[in-house]
Write a structure and sequence with these properties.
It contains four helices and 15 strands. It has 360 residues and is of the alpha+beta class.
Length: 360
């Protein structure tokens, strides 16, 4: 029997059970740490394994995720609000218009989000709904403008643009031309409604709310001055409720006084007790108008005055300019920053009358 080289006492003997076997499991070689919550005198071994402490990482992750989730919610809300602008405006567009499929611009006068509030954005959105009107009468040819309000070709313009006309031709912004018929006129309000023959799927304009217009609001005017189709000018609303007097010219005598003659002829107009651009005659009417410094010239009559949301707030109808020299035969007509438009609320209130073919 070989001698053991183990130090004495290295492996202590354990108490045995009655059969001589060592107790199991053996106690540890060190004294267990005191147990908390154990009554005095109670066996402290074997000690239960302590419950693992909750991991701190998930709590930190939960705390970290909250700002991210909040930011995501804010971003989603902002997108909904931002997108709501174009959506709301799209709902104002005439029901006959359809989406272009781009997702950002709706057919009609809806301004895309990327160019909202800009002259270029308004012009791009509204110009397709503005037309050039050529009216032929016994007095000659006259040029004016109009605003498409239904996809099948209803167009609002001034009465003095088409008064006495025997034939009306309308050119869209695309260059396509139509023949138009007069549906109804209202000489007292200087309004007329014409309708294109066999038209469909046209871009339409949104009629806004002129009661919400304030002095200083930025506006855009689109029309065909001097036959220059789709001309865009801009300015502000200079004043409200101006009394403007124009020739009614609601007869078919062919005098042509109320029409803009191609090349810059008559545009009869009174303001402040003075007459401009020719004689207004004895048959005339006065209405309350929006004054603007957006440049207007002969041919702008019947065109649109537009707010920066792309909504029509007025139908351009008159301008101030020096009267023609009686003996020169030439006109000094031109914009001096005093233009006038019939409020769109007047147009909307008169539409049923015009559609019924009634009027003054």
């Amino acid at each position: 029997m070989t001698d053991s080289h183990r130090p004495s006492g290295e492996y202590p003997m354990y108490p045995s059970y009655g059969n001589g076997e060592a107790a199991y499991p053996p106690p540890p070689a060190y004294e267990p740490a005191p147990q908390t919550g154990v009554a005095a005198g109670a066996p402290a071994w074997p000690a239960p394994e302590p419950a693992p402490e909750p991991a701190a990482a998930p709590a930190r992750e939960r705390r970290a995720r909250r700002p991210v989730a909040l930011l995501a919610a804010v971003a989603i809300a902002a997108a909904v609000i931002g997108g709501g602008t174009a959506t709301l405006l799209g709902e104002l567009t005439d029901g006959g218009s359809n989406s272009t499929g781009s997702g950002s611009v709706v057919s009609g006068t809806t301004v895309s989000q990327s160019s909202a509030g800009t002259v270029s954005g308004v012009a791009a959105a509204v110009a397709p709904a503005i037309v050039e009107i050529s009216a032929t009468s016994s007095a000659g040819d006259a040029t004016g403008s109009g605003v498409v309000i239904t996809s099948d070709g209803e167009i609002v313009t001034n009465n003095h643009v088409i008064a006495g006309a025997t034939q009306i031709e309308v050119a869209l912004s695309t260059g396509k031309t139509y023949t138009a018929d007069v549906v109804g006129t209202d000489a007292d309000k200087d309004l007329a409604l014409i309708k294109l023959q066999d038209a469909s799927g046209l871009k339409t304009a949104s009629l806004g709310d002129s009661s919400a217009v304030e002095v200083g609001d930025q506006v855009v005017a689109i029309g065909s001055p001097e036959g220059l189709t789709g001309t865009v000018t801009s300015g502000i609303v200079s004043a409200l409720d101006r009394d403007v007097t124009i020739a009614k010219n609601d007869d078919s005598s062919g005098s042509g006084q109320g029409q803009q003659q191609q090349g810059g002829g008559n545009w009869p107009f009174e303001f402040g007790g003075q007459q401009f651009n020719g004689d207004t005659g004895t048959s005339k009417t006065t209405y309350k108008a929006i004054q603007t410094d957006a440049s207007l010239n002969p041919g702008n009559s019947g065109g649109a005055l537009i707010n920066m949301n792309g909504e029509i707030i007025g139908i351009n109808s008159a301008m101030y300019s020096p009267s023609s020299s009686s003996g020169s035969g030439s006109s000094t007509a031109g914009s001096v920053g005093l233009g006038f438009a019939i409020p769109v609320d007047t147009v909307k209130a008169d539409l049923d009358t015009l559609r019924a073919g009634n009027g003054s």
